[in-house]
Amino acid sequence: KILLGLLILSLTTAKAQDLYDLTNVTTIELTFWDPNWDATLDSYYAAGLDQRLLATCLVNGVQYDSVGVKYKGNSTYNSNNSKNPLNIKLNHILDHQDYQDFYTLKLSSGKNDPSFVREVLSYEIARKYMDAPLSNYAKVYVNGNYHGLYSSSESINKKFVKEKYYSDKDNTLIKCNPLNPMAGGSSLEYLGVDSSLYFDYYEVASDYGWNDIVYYTNELNNNFSNIENTWDIDRAIWMLAFDNVLVSLDTYIGPFKQNYYLFKDDHNRFNAIVWDMNESLGGFEMIGSGGGPPGPTNITTLQELDPFLRLGDNSYPLVNQILSNARYKKMYMAHFRTILEENFANGDYQSRATVFQSLIQNDVSTDPNAFYSVSQFTSNLTSQVQGQSGAFGITQLMDPRVTYLQSNSEYVKVGPVISNVQNTAATMNATTTITASISNATYAYLGHRNAVSDIFTKTEMFDDGMHNDGAANDGVYGVTIPVGVSDIQYYIYSDNANAGKFSPERAAHEYHSIAVVGDVVINEILASNAVAQADPDGEFDDWIEFYNNTSSPIVLDGYYLSDNTNNPTKW
Questions:
Q1: How far is CA 288 from the centre of its chain?
Q2: Rounded to 5 degrees, what are φ and ψ at 479?
C-alpha cells in the first residue's frame, strides 16, 4: 500500500518544465528588497568583489528564497545598459535550493547578437561532439515587470564536471579568461615553474590547481610525445575544429585565447570545454590583435578562414602541437568535415536557427530593454545589421564558407571508408574479435573501454590474415580483445597518407557498443525498506535477489552493485 501510494503520488504530481527545454522558454521572476537594485548591482560589479544582492526568485513557478544575484560579462556588461547579463545563485544562502539539481543560472543579454540564436544554436551543435553546456532561453521579470529576454546556459561548475567526467573528487577546474586579454591571453604557453606567472591569465575555479597549470602546460609544450597521458587529446581536437568551422574567434583560436575551461579528470588528464558562445558564427570578427584583420566590413576573410589557423604559431601551442602531428592533423580534419557536413552543408543550422527565432519572436518584440529592433532580429539570420560590429548575417557568413571549404585542398582529401563493423559473441571472461571492412587505408586502430568513466585503450587493427580478419589484404581489418564482465564501448579510426576517418563519425563522443552475454539476472529487489517487509529476524533491511538461469555455477568476481553512477564499483 505504501509503494502503491508513492506510485500514485508520482504519477499525479506535475513535472516541472526542464530548465533548459529547447521547445519552451523558461520564466525567471526576481523580486529585490532593494529598490535601487540596478545601481547596487553596478556598484558590486565595479568593486569586483563577487558580492551578490539578495532576492526572491521564481523559476517556472517554483519559489526560492534568498538567492544571490550579480551582474556578469565583459564586453556585454555596461552600467549604462538597461539590461545586463545575470548570474543567479539559488543556493547562495540556503544550501539545499536547486532547480532539477541546477543551482547557478547564467543569463546572457543578447547585446552582441542581433539574431539572438548564436549562443543557443552553437551549444546545440557542440553537444553532438563533446561535453558542452545546455542552453536555451529565459524571460526575466524584475519586481513584477518584464525585464527582457535572455539566453540561459548551464554553468560549468562542480555539478557539470561530476556529471560529464564521473568524478566525485574536487579536481582542478580552470576558467581560461585572462585579466587583460590584450596581454597574451590564456594561451597555454609554458611560462616557467613559478605558478604566480600564470595568475593574470587563468582563474582557478576549484579549491586548488595552480601547480597543475604549470605541469600541464609544460607537458603540452615540452613533452608532447606523452600527450595522451596528460590531455584528453580527442576532446581538444573536437573543440579546435568546432571553433574554426563556426568562425568562433572569441575563443582559444582567436586573438585573446580565452573563453574555455580545463578540467583534470580522475585519470589525471586535462579536458578542454567550450564556453561563451554568444559571439560565435562570426559575431566576433577579430582574427589578429589590435582590431583586425578583418574589420567590420570584411566578411570574406571570415568566410575563408583557414582551417589550419595558428599552425606554426608557437603562441598557440594547443593548436600548433596538434596540427604539427600528422595523425592528429588528419583526425582534426575528420572532425572538421563531420561538423561542417552534419550542420552546415545540409542547411540544418539555418533550419534550427529559424525554429529558435520563431520560439522567441514574441518575447523579443515585447522586450522593453532589447538592444535591437524586431526587424534587425529577423534579418540578421541572413544579412548584416548595418552599423553594428559583429552583425554579419549568419547564412551570409556560413553558406559561402561551406562553398569555400568544400573546395579547399585539405578538406577534399579522401580518407578511408569504414563499413560492415562486426564482432563475435562477447561472453564474460573470454575474448571477442572486432572486424571492419576498410578500403583506401594504410592504418587502423580500435579504441575500446568498459565504462564511460574509463579511458579508451587504443589497439592496432590488421589486415594480415593473422588477427581473425580473414585473408590477408582482403580489406577486412581485425583485432581480438579481452572481455571481462562489463559491456564494451568502442570506435574505429583509420587513415592513409592523406586523410583519416572515424566510425562512428562522432567518435569518441559517440561509440559502438557490445553487450557482454551473461546468465545472471536480478530476480527481486526491495529498496528503501523502512516498513514494507521484515526479514526472519524482524529487521527491515534492503535486499536484492540474483538468479542463475543456467545449471552451472557462475562466478560473480568482477561484478558490482551501486546506487551512484560516479562510483559503479561501490558494493
A1: 26
A2: -160, 145
Strand duo 145-154 + 457-460: pairing: unpaired
Q: What residues in the chain have per-residue pLDDT under 70?
A: 1-15, 290-297, 387-390
Angle at 292 between CA 288 and CA 298, to 5 degrees: 125
CB contact burial 398-410 (16+ within 10 A = b; e otherwise): bbebbeebeebeb
Element (H, E) at 138: strand 135-142
The set of residues, in sequence order, having a beta carbon less than 8 Å from that of 35 and lying 6+ positions away, is: none
- Residue 4: what pLDDT? 40
DSSP state of 190: -
Interior/surface letters 220-256, b for 16+ CB within 10 angstroms, e for the rest: bbeebeebeebbbbbbbbbbbbbbbbbbbbbbbbbbb
What is the DSSP pairing of strand 520-526 with strand 543-548? antiparallel
What Å distances lie between residue 539 and 478, 526, 530, 543, CA to CA? 54, 13, 9, 11
Instruction: For the beta carbon of residue 194, count every other beta carbon within 10 angstroms.
Output: 10
Helix axis angle, 348-365 to 394-405, nearest 10°: 170
Residue 6's pLDDT is 42
Query: To which H or E segment does residue 160 belong?
Result: helix 158-165
Q: What angle do CA 18, 279, 164 make, to 5 degrees?
A: 45
> What pTM, to 2 d.p., does this model score?
0.91
User: What three-state secondary structure class fits 357?
Assistant: helix
Q: Provide the residue count of the chain.
A: 571
What are φ and ψ of residue 246, in 5° steps? -85, 10
C-alpha cell at 100: 532539477
> What pLDDT shows up at residue 291?
56
- CA distances (Å), origin 323, targets 225, 340, 441: 14, 19, 21
Q: How far is CA 326 from CA 78, 333, 380, 431, 515, in A?
A: 45, 11, 39, 33, 35
Mutual angle of helices 118-126 and 348-365, in 10-degree steps:
140
DSSP string, 41-106: HHHHHHHTS---EEEEEEETTEEEEEEEEEE--STT--TT-SS--EEEETTSS-TT--BTTB-EEE
